[in-house]
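Quick note —
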Amino acid sequence: MGSLSAFDERLQYPAARRDESIVDDYHGVKVADPYRWLEDPDADEVKEFVQGQVKLTDSVLKKCETREKLSEAITKLFDHPRYGSLFRKGNKYFYFHNTGLQAHSVLYMQDDLDAEPEILLDPNTLSNDGTVALSTFSISEDAKLLAYGLSSSGSDWVTIKVMSVQDKKVEPDTLSWVKFSGITWTHDNKGFFYSRYPAPKEGENIDAGTETNANLYHELYYHFLGSDQSDDILCWRDHENPKYLFEADVTDDGKYLIMAIEEGCDPVNKVYYCDLSSLEGGLQSFSGSNTLLPFIKLVDTFDAQYSAIANDETVFTFLTNKDAPKYKLVRVDLKEPGKWIDVIDEHGKDVLSSACAVNGNHLIVSYLSDVKHVLQIRDLKSGSLLHQLPLDIGSVSGVFARRKDSSFFFSFASFLTPGVIYKCDLADETPKVKVFREIAVPGFDRAAFQATQVFYPSKDRTKIPMFIVAKKGIELDGSHPCLLYAYGGFNISITPFFSVSRIVLGRHLGAVFCFANIRGGGEYGEEWHKGGALAKKQTCFDDFISGAEYLVSAGYTQPGKLCIEGGSNGGLLIGACINQRPDLFGCALAHVGVMDMLRFHKFTIGHAWTSEFGCSDKEEEFHWLIRYSPLHNVKRPWEEQQTGRFVQYPSTMLLTADHDDRVVPLHSLKLLATMQHVLCTSLENSPQTKPIISRIEVKAGHGAGRPTQKMIDEAADRYGFMAKMLDASWIE
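Predicted structure written out below.
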């Protein structure tokens, strides 16, 4: 059981043409790319290939008995009211709320905390199928106007619209070709800054979301309310550096525009500023001119990250990793740009993850301590610690504060806490923290589960943290289905969060679910990140494989019962690990993974990831990439084994989406065709009996903005597949 022996017959994989003539020369090394044709999403042959794969997957999923039960159980548990943290603009409060199974959360507002809330923007009214999502928004200083960005089918492309808050009237303003952009209003409420790419030239593919063209020449604009986009003021561009990305923010006092310039995904940026109050004639004077805003360069090198926290006139406080891989707070006077002083020193072990000003001269400071959040109140001027707020073990998010307010809200969640929204009042000397809202999940019994954190040794003996969540009192006899998840890249930390679908797996499949905080992430600062990037990327895979080995040796599971899962950079992780240790896993779920490490930089925003992975255009970096690239390392394990026992690849599902314009679908399609060819179709009676299939979502993207029903359907499909492949039976 657990492999295709549970099915009636050996799978018939769709035929996929191999073009053996496509061979690239990388620094003298010849590399074949027989499925290059799968890179064209508009080709009929590609559409045919996808249709064949969809039929195959449907035939497999029909035989996954727990799929319907999973769908019902996840839907039932998902159907509970959820709330986001509150924030203030003008004299109003705003927050997001979902009644349970709404496709998207709705933006509400209220005049005070006791007033009746009213709907400001309901994204569920924007499309019949829930595929139009709210991706970004900003409320003007006087709280009279809402600028909001809409994304269709999960694409990164955004259209910005404007609404009058009072009468909910949508204004004619429509801004297109927006991507990787915030929205920041000037304090006169006349308009806002945003970032965009040039409109496509005639004849270029403009089906936003399915095109693969590289995103180059980002630009910063200002839009005056009520005007046409063609009249927007071009504030900044840099044609000499087409890969640069620009994001701007207006300071709390409304005087300065701070622009962060990034080139890749490393936590480094340049900082330029413009004194808006010094512009003669204001921004209006730049209308129709070819003159860019007079930005002054404060930091003009990519050697560290700088995030502006607060300013008093020309004195600015920044959060930075300059000479501080675990981050610190520094201060500089724009009049003396060469003189920086430390306000909060780097901590010896914990990562300073965020800071914001509140109540005049207070700071809310968040630290990450062994992957758990600590929240402190500090003095803005001196940085000295005033109070530590009492917190359970878990994650803090949604810290929304204004310097002029004496209170603020924040959200807390953990693996066994669906969510609590706290209100903290700093009007008196001692902070008053009280529960404002608690999210309750009917039918979820927290006491039935236990969440623990372990630290296991990796290949080089480094201790790696891992959270393990299971029913209380399970026997460590190796009998349990187990789901191991990790990300391990781009300085992103995976902190505790509540997952309905995984709770269902624990309750009804007896599954243990685990999260390994492998290197490449930001859990212990920039050194931890760099320990799993570029030439050291293999460290991520070693950390993850060691985590799987720990779960087996500690008695939680056994290889045939172990499923591994990851998305995006985590999808790459899964692809690499099944190539390197196919014997260690029973099932693999790889979402929207970067699988072709030699060509990823050629599509959409892929060029920004060379700071994380390297680039095959450079000889040394090509040799790093070819060693682990999932597409280029698929091998028949039964021909290579030396253990004397038969090994095949784990049952594998590669998940992608037709409008993923972040990690374009060609990555998963090329790997799918390669795995099916090497392991299944090129050999008569191949020993590979475990399925190698895909799940290709339509009208969806990289993950953001996906409606609730699509999330439930996907979870039921992938975990139904997992249950069948691990031979996990249903427990009522």
